[in-house]
Amino acid sequence: MAWVALEDSGVAYTATLGSGTTLVDSVLTCTHAVPEARLVFEAPQSLRITSVSRDWTDVTDADAFSWNDGETTQENDDPTGQDWSPTPFLAQVAAGEDFSYVLGDDDSNPRSFEFLIEIDDAAVINCDCDDSLGSRTLGELTADLFTRLGFVDPMANVGKRSLKDLRDDLTRRAGNAALAGATLPPGMSDLIDGFINEAQQTLFRRLELDRGGLPLPARMTADGNLTTLDYVPVFNLALALYKAHLGAGDAKVYFEITEKFLADTLNRTPPNATALCKSFLQDAQRQLVRRYEAARMDRWFTWNLVQGVRFYDLPRNLEKKADTPCDKTIDQLAIKWVGIQNGSVMAPMRKGIPNTMVGYTSQVGYPCYYDIKQCIEVWPAPSASTGQLRIRAGFKLGPFEDDADQPSLDEELVFLFALANGMAHFKRPDAQSVMAQFSVYLADLVADSHGTARYVPGQNREADMIYTEPKPSVPFA
């Protein structure tokens, strides 16, 4: 056996701790005169209890401490404190059964113990729930897709200027150079500031940046406030508005300059481009998880069998109900194996409950058929609350909405498919070339996924595990 610490095992359990007793990092610490601890596991477990430290002073009680797994009791074997157990103590605990620890009644002297609790890793059949592929995040993939599609972010590499600088330049360009930097006549400063703020917010809306989830720029009110957008188009539009207000004939020129800037920017970057790139990536992953079976990673999902109960909810498996629930959700369209486990024996079940048996609702026994509906149905209903329903299946895609989220599939596969779809959407001539790259990459991943597996036509792998006595070469020999 190989052992893993309780907190690292991922098994579901409930702990009831008495006064002066703690359970931290899989170590049970007892420091009270008569401490008590009780553990209840949702599935059968093999446990090992190992002493870590002790502080024992003149204890005379023969039952100074004891562990009880429901059937046998392991007691301290030397009340003098010179030698003591368990070092280690092994226990088999059934599902729902109390596994308890208690010190004796001798509370006249202080004592403390520390025990390390470990789980047989044969019962741990899954990897850590928070496994990661270490790939690029959605934000990084979006930025890369943005670049490959030739888009230009109007918010990148912008030149910024303060409200006061723009106000002084507008004053000069309107023919009032002597007032630049000086105290302006009443109301004139507010008028110019209004044109600057109106220009920036108009450009923001015209570029449809508000559709990408960016907030509308706050109005600049203090002299030191900086522009959010590049100051050049903001200044040109503000100047056009100011000159139009003054009735200057060249206002049209600056309006045309602004319109040319907007046309060039929108030609290079479509409206809401960031959200569009994210949607290409998200859609690519949703399609690939069905197309590319080798990309799906599997987990075991477990339900405790309950006497007389035929229906089990898909989301209410033991991993979801654990104190630290796993966020992986079973994909009922990607099931690879279904069976019953009793101890170390796992027996497969047959898919499809015959219609002729459905009406026998009171029938109990050893479940041998199953169906996947809105829930899992087994037939017949279990005759006892022992054993577990085990399903090996793929899990649904993880979150892929926020910039920090990572794809659940191979990042390059998702990126190439999204890039090909994006180029086709914008009618780029090299869309077919990128799709060809994607197809080759996908084929290579499928080939690599076979690993060391070898295939023989007509081979029955389950029959190969059954020993068959060889036939004699000589009759009746």
* DSSP, total strands: 21
The largest sheet, given as strand count, sense and whether it forms a barrel, is: 6 strands, antiparallel
Q: Which regions are unreliable across 5 or more consecutive residues at pLDDT < 50?
A: 59-63, 75-86
Q: What is the radius of gyration?
A: 35 Å
C-alpha end-to-end distance: 44 Å
Describe this entry's structure for a reader.
The model is unreliable at 59-63 and 75-86 (pLDDT under 50). β7 and β8 (73-75) form a beta hairpin. The chain has helices spanning 6-9, 138-148, 163-173, 188-206, 231-246, 251-268, 273-291, 318-321, 355-358, 411-425, 431-448, 461-464; strands at 3-5, 13-17, 21-24, 27-30, 36-41, 45-56, 65-68, 73-75, 89-93, 98-103, 111-120, 298-304, 311-312, 330-342, 345-348, 350-351, 364-365, 369-372, 376-379, 381-382, 388-395. It is of the alpha+beta class and 477 residues long. Among the domains are: 3-123, Jelly Rolls (Sandwich), CATH 2.60.120; 163-268, no CATH class; 298-395, no CATH class. Strands 1, 3, 4, 6, 9 and 11 form a six-stranded antiparallel sheet that branches. Strands 2-5-10-7-8 form a five-stranded antiparallel sheet, with no helix packed on it.
Put the structure in a nutshell:
By secondary structure, the chain is α+β, with helices and mostly antiparallel strands.
